[in-house]
Write a structure and sequence with these properties.
single chain, alpha/beta, Defensin A-like, Nucleotidyltransferase, domain 5, Actin, Chain A, domain 4, 11 helices, 31% helix, 30% strand
Length: 324
């Protein structure tokens, strides 16, 4: 039979999908071949059948009918997001048909990816610093790992310092991250005259030095909040595409007194990998053989309170309180 069903951990096709359709009606799809293919969403036949189908059908591109199935997932947000921003992100997931199991900070997700990868190599206590410089976020977090327990000590970020800020300064950023020179060509820039310029990495670093220094200020603030000396850090994990910029890596190595930067995790995938690990841990009744029973204890990045007077907040939950 033409049945497809989606469960928490697998996709079923044919008889297995049909058998569990009664217990999972909104995620069991049928009749698509006979009634949906080749028709418009506004077709009267589809409009009548929508009332009978347990799954949801909506109008897509060019009025084509699209089937919505419900998924569970973990969503990551920048560490500096406040409660309103986190709720808005969760609401966006619900609107998209995603059951949000948990909202976690992006550097914390990267730490989960790191911890799973290093688990076999190290047993005991480790202090890890996550440096996450992505296209739209800049976050840093300091965590203590004790075997399979992840404890966030402090986190910091800057909403006005992200990878796109470097892009806006110089579009040749990606080339200069791997080569010492980049050629900039613009055809017919002025009155039919082509523009040609050889741009060096040194010039790029000079133009962006204020942004590099702001990165280090955020790093220092995180250590100040955690009341920890940088010499106690065991690993510095780079996350986000802009963490590949050589000057960023050079400044971090100098700050951490020539400590090697941990680069075994793909900076572009670390956050998504960690979110997938967290989703696996939260999936009840599903046993993922390659995912150990990790315990994550995150903290509130901002203080929460109530408005006592017109412009005074009475703090109820202080910043860096452990989230149960």
């Amino acid at each position: 039979p033409s049945f497809v069903a989606f469960t928490d951990d697998q996709r079923l096709i044919g008889d297995p999908a049909k058998i569990q359709a009664a217990s999972n009606p909104t995620n069991a799809v049928f009749d698509a071949k006979r009634l949906l293919i080749g028709r418009k969403y506004s077709d009267s036949v589809i409009q009548n059948d929508i009332l009978l189908w347990p799954f949801k059908v909506v109008s897509g591109t060019d009025d084509k009918p699209e089937i919505i199935v419900k998924y569970k997932g973990v969503v990551t947000v920048p560490a500096y997001f406040n409660e309103s921003q986190r709720k808005a992100t969760k609401d966006a997931g619900l609107i998209a048909g995603l059951k949000v199991m948990r909202i976690i900070n992006e550097p914390t997700a990267a730490a989960l990816a790191y911890g799973l990868q290093k688990r076999a190599d190290h047993v005991g206590k480790r202090n890890v610093f996550i440096f996450d410089l992505g296209g739209g976020t800049f976050d840093v977090s300091l965590l203590t790992l004790i075997n399979d327990n992840f404890n966030v000590k402090a986190t910091a970020g800057d909403t006005h310092l992200v990878g796109e800020d470097f892009d806006n300064r110089m579009r040749a950023k990606r080339t200069l991250s791997f080569d010492t020179e980049a050629i900039i060509d613009i055809d017919a820039l002025y009155e039919g005259i082509d523009f040609h310029l050889l741009f060096t990495r040194a010039k790029f670093e000079q133009l962006n030095m204020d942004l590099f220094e702001k990165c280090l200020e955020t790093v220092k603030n995180c250590f100040s909040d955690a009341k920890m000396n940088k010499s106690r850090i065991d690993d510095v994990v780079l996350v986000g595409g802009s963490s590949r910029i050589p000057k960023v890596q050079q400044l971090l190595q100098e700050f951490f007194e020539e400590k090697d930067l941990y680069s075994s995790i793909n900076p572009d995938e670390a956050v998504a990998y960690g979110a997938a690990v967290q989703a696996a841990l939260l999936s009840e009744g599903v046993n993922y053989k390659n995912v150990p029973n990790l315990v994550l204890r995150d903290v509130t990045p901002l203080s929460l309170g109530i408005l006592a007077n017109t412009d005074i907040m009475s703090v109820v939950i202080p910043r860096y309180t452990s989230i149960p």
